[in-house]
């Protein structure tokens, strides 16, 4: 698998070049090399096929019903009984282990210990010595797992190997990818694993997370709707307040201040700056409305509408990168207001990402995980590095 990953990194830039174009560009005496090139492209296609997710399991989904906990999962290999349901007493929740399974690669299977209680996450933190930052995973479990493995955040047994380091996910866990539940459960598991070693995992919500919780399924892979149908439940009920993952997601923040860094999904618009709300206040106001349907027609509070706005809100704003770009003076205003040195965001894929913008004041970390661009960021020894699946570190200037 490591060879395949390294091969993929080498060939990524060539996938968009056609055979006709190669032959046209090459001098006659070099055209035999085109055979070598397309041999490599064939290998690349095979590598992609091998790497492609063929997991026949979906879930598990944990639903509260009366005094019971129902753990539902789907096994698409089973024709006669594709839905598996296990029932537990809620009073025994702290002793329940659930299993996340992969039919295509059982070595990826892992167990999760359920927590007795879920509490809201703090939103202001001291600067950790090490930070691993990623965004927009969107159900690409293998990419996320491989990045964690390659950069020694976890080992093959999903044990935490990052010491007192912090992992920061700047939003977007849902949509497009084939392994959303597995990704959520891995983060749930790693949060506890990190704490035992003095580390921490920060899961910050993005627009796709808010959309799913509010029933906006525009970008949802049809696999999940099929699973919900088989389980005889509405997809929206798989992540509502009567589910474990729904409660866990509603405990998360839309923005966090981690040392010198303001971490969120989209960005801070001038309009949100004008609200003059602290990081804890932004989260305190927003949390009751996570999962709220038709917000703009049911809420009149301007602060809430601005925070959740699809153009100027915390998890939608793209003003740092649109034309004309936001004036740097506004970015400076944000940094001064929150007493930080930089803003770290996902949400917007740019040609140069992962990169600094505004003279180092904004760090954009979104890359297209679905197209094989698997990267993250590391802060270590007061330096910033770009990471990939090879485990190498390239310093960001």
How does this model look, in words?
It holds the Pfam family Metallophos. It comes from Pedobacter montanisoli. This is Metallophosphoesterase. Residues 132-348 form the Calcineurin-like phosphoesterase domain. InterPro entries: Calcineurin-like_PHP, Metallo-depent_PP-like. With 397 residues, the chain is of the alpha/beta class. The protein folds into 3 domains: 2-51; 57-104, no CATH class; 124-395, Purple Acid Phosphatase, chain A, domain 2. The chain is built from 13 helices and 17 strands. It has helices spanning 2-11, 19-25, 33-51, 141-150, 180-196, 207-213, 222-230, 244-249, 270-273, 279-286, 295-298, 302-308, 328-338, and strands at residues 57-65, 68-75, 83-89, 97-100, 110-113, 124-125, 130-134, 166-170, 200-204, 255-258, 261-264, 342-345, 355-357, 362-364, 376-380, 383-387, 393-395. A 6-stranded mixed β-sheet has the order 6-10-11-12-14-13. Strands 9-8-7-15-16-17 form a 6-stranded mixed β-sheet.
SSE blueprint and pairings:
Elements: H1 2-11, H2 19-25, H3 33-51, E1 57-65, E2 68-75, E3 83-89, E4 97-100, E5 110-113, E6 124-125, E7 130-134, H4 141-150, E8 166-170, H5 180-196, E9 200-204, H6 207-213, H7 222-230, H8 244-249, E10 255-258, E11 261-264, H9 270-273, H10 279-286, H11 295-298, H12 302-308, H13 328-338, E12 342-345, E13 355-357, E14 362-364, E15 376-380, E16 383-387, E17 393-395
Parallel strand pairs: 6-10, 7-8, 8-9, 11-12, 12-14
Antiparallel strand pairs: 1-2, 2-3, 4-5, 7-15, 10-11, 13-14, 15-16, 16-17
Helix pairs in contact: 1-3
């Amino acid at each position: 698998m490591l060879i395949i990953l390294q091969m993929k990194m080498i060939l990524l830039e060539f996938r968009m070049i056609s055979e006709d174009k190669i032959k046209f560009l090459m001098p006659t005496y070099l055209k035999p090399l085109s055979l070598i090139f397309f041999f490599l492209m064939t290998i690349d296609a095979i590598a992609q096929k091998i790497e492609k997710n063929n997991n026949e399991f979906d879930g598990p989904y944990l639903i509260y019903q009366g005094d019971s906990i129902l753990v539902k999962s789907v096994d698409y290999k089973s024709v006669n009984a594709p839905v598996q349901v296990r029932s537990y007493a809620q009073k025994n929740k702290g002793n329940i282990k659930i299993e996340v399974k992969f039919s295509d690669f059982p070595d990826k299977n892992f167990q999760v210990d359920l927590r007795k209680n879920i509490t809201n996450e703090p939103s202001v933190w001291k600067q950790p010595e090490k930070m691993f930052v990623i965004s927009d995973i969107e159900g690409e479990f293998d990419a996320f797992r491989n990045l964690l493995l390659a950069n020694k955040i976890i080992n093959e047994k999903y044990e935490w190997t990052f010491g007192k380091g912090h992992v920061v996910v700047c939003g977007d866990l849902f949509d497009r990818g084939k392994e959303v539940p597995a990704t959520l459960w891995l983060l749930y598991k790693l949060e506890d694993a990190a704490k035992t070693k003095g580390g921490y995992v920060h899961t910050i919500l993005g627009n796709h997370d808010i959309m799913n919780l509010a029933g906006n399924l525009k970008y949802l892979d049809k696999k999940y709707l099929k699973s919900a149908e088989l389980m005889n439940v509405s997809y929206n009920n798989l992540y509502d307040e009567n589910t474990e993952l729904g409660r866990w997601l509603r405990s998360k923040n839309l923005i966090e201040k981690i040392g010198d860094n303001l971490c969120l999904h989209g960005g801070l618009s001038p309009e949100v700056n004008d609200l003059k709300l602290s990081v804890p206040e932004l989260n305190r106001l927003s949390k009751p409305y996570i999962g709220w349907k038709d917000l703009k027609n049911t809420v009149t509070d301007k602060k809430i509408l601005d925070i959740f706005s699809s153009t100027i809100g915390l998890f939608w704003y793209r003003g740092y990168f649109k034309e004309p770009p936001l004036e740097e003076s506004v970015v400076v205003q944000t940094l001064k207001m929150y007493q930080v040195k930089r803003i770290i965001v996902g949400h917007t894929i740019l040609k140069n990402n992962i990169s600094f913008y505004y003279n180092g004041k904004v760090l954009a970390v979104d890359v297209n995980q679905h197209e094989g661009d698997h990267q993250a960021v590391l802060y270590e020894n007061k330096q910033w590095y770009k990471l990939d699946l090879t485990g190498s570190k390239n310093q960001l200037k």
